[in-house]
Design goal:
With 88 residues, the chain is an all-alpha fold. It contains 4 helices and no strands. The protein is elongated, with a radius of gyration of 19 Å.
């Protein structure tokens, strides 16, 4: 009873905070996954162009990383897992 009154008095809804924090952590994890998989795909699928297109591939991978859940279906469909992950 005392905890409930203290929570209501402070106005903090911890359930919502945990849901938002979980969503942010999942978005970041998804972004890291998207970045690594899409960058590896372009660098390893086209090795002859890898050095020349390095900056473009990195920019595309960063955009996929920022997009998080929104880019996940495209990364799962287009970027074959056989290319693995690449960070640099």
């Amino acid at each position: 009873m005392i905890e409930q009154v203290a929570t209501q008095a402070s106005g903090i809804n911890w359930t919502n905070i945990f849901i938002i924090a979980g969503f942010v952590i999942a978005w970041i994890a998804c972004g890291i996954y998207n970045y690594g998989r899409s960058f590896a795909y372009f660098q390893r699928k086209y090795p002859n162009l890898a050095n020349m297109d390095y900056k473009d591939d990195k920019c595309y991978a960063i955009i996929n990383g920022i997009a998080g859940f929104l880019a996940l279906p495209a990364v799962l469909i287009v970027c074959s897992p056989s290319y693995g992950f690449k960070w640099k």
